[in-house]
Write a structure and sequence with these properties.
Elements (H helix, E strand, L loop, with lengths): L3 E5 L4 H12 L3 E6 L11 E4 L5 H11 L3 E4 L5 H6 L1 H22 L2 E7 L23 H20 L3 E6 L1 E3 L12 H12 L1 E4 L7 E5 H13 L10 E2 L3 E3 L1 H9 L6 E4 L3 H7 L8 H7 L7 H16 L5
Parallel strand pairs: 1-2, 1-4, 2-3, 4-5, 5-6, 6-10, 7-9, 8-12
Antiparallel strand pairs: 9-11
Helix pairs in contact: 1-7, 2-4, 4-5, 6-8, 6-11
Bound molecules: serine.
């Protein structure tokens, strides 16, 4: 059934594709972000909304009357370490503004968490849903505090709020911005354009990753699941895990002269704190989550789509 859906942070890596997907499903979608309308290109209506501007947020919500809100606006891990207090403000105050409006307008809410909630003391392989959570990045701290906050609003005010702990997301339509896992997108552009890439992570730095099509399908599936099937405040959500070296080897199957070298920087320190793989059996049991893209499928889809977008040949 078509719904009125508001997307906050619609111009980001996830928001861009979520907006298109929900629009193509026949919903009435309003995309919002802080970007100038001349620099965005949505198939839907678009408005400037800063999640820190509570009055504007309220105006838009009271006028559009969304049944569902996806709050995707955030500062990611690497940028967050450069501007920790600003990241905290955007990630936390932005969420509080949306939660307070959810109390008033009773919309259903999606809010993204991340594998970054886990820290160096968390078991790194098959990280369980419930485990040691001691993040050291401001991004991870804001995401874990956010998980507790949405659970509080859920129980205290009877709201319907759902959340996923996204792994690194890999997509070709919109670029990621300021994350630790961004290398796994950049590498494809560099492989196609220059046949070489300098990676800022260690060659063996394995991280949980997912192709965007899976992420969007899973997100919408979570939102459409019956309310009583949702048991966790924010679900572990996983597909595949790979290291930069494994990704480069897979790319070489398509571009044989592709070369990669490594100059690990401070982002490798962040990646080092995160899990290598995630146990997402709760999501698979509670609302039938299942990923479709393994590494070979993901690499083929990324290379073909980016080559087409850049009007380049692969070899
Ligand atoms: N991809 C995100 C980042 O690297 C993790 O949530 O910051």
């Amino acid at each position: 059934m078509a719904q009125r859906i508001l997307i906050l942070g619609a111009a980001g890596q996830i928001g861009t594709e979520l907006t298109e997907f929900l629009h193509n499903q026949g919903n009435n979608v309003l995309a919002t972000d802080i970007k100038d309308p001349n620099y965005v290109n949505f198939p839907t209506e678009y408005e400037i909304v800063d999640v820190l501007d509570r009055d504007k947020l309220q105006q838009v919500i009271s006028k559009f009357k969304p049944e569902v809100v996806y709050h995707m606006a955030a500062i990611l891990s690497a940028t967050g370490e450069k501007i920790p207090l600003k990241a905290w403000e955007i990630n936390m105050q932005g969420l509080i503004n949306v939660l307070e409006l959810a109390r008033e307008y009773r919309f259903k809410l999606f809010w993204p968490s991340s594998i970054a909630i886990f820290g160096p003391t968390t078991p790194k392989d098959n990280t369980p849903q419930h485990t040691i959570v001691e993040p050291l990045t401001i991004y991870g701290i804001s995401k874990y505090a956010g998980e507790r906050l949405i659970d509080y609003y859920k129980h205290r005010y009877g709201l319907d709020i759902r959340s996923l702990r996204y792994p690194g997301l890999i997509s070709w339509k919109a670029l990621p911005g300021g994350g630790t896992t961004d290398y796994a997108v950049e590498i494809f552009y560099e492989a196609i354009k220059n046949h070489r890439y300098t990676c800022y992570l260690d060659p063996y730095r394995t991280l949980p990753m997912m192709y965007m099509d899976d992420a969007i399908r899973g997100t919408v599936q979570l939102m459409e699941a019956p309310r009583d099937s949702i048991k966790e405040a924010s679900y572990n959500f996983s597909a595949i895990s790979f290291s930069p070296q494994e990704l480069a080897d897979e790319i070489k199957k398509h571009i044989p002269d592709f070369e990669i070298n490594y100059e690990p920087d401070e982002r490798d320190q962040l990646a080092q704190q995160w899990p290598r793989s995630i146990d997402d059996s709760r999501a698979r049991e509670d609302w039938n989550w299942k990923h479709e893209y393994d590494l070979p499928l993901l690499v083929t889809a990324m290379l073909e789509n980016i080559a087409r977008k850049l009007n380049k040949q692969l070899t």
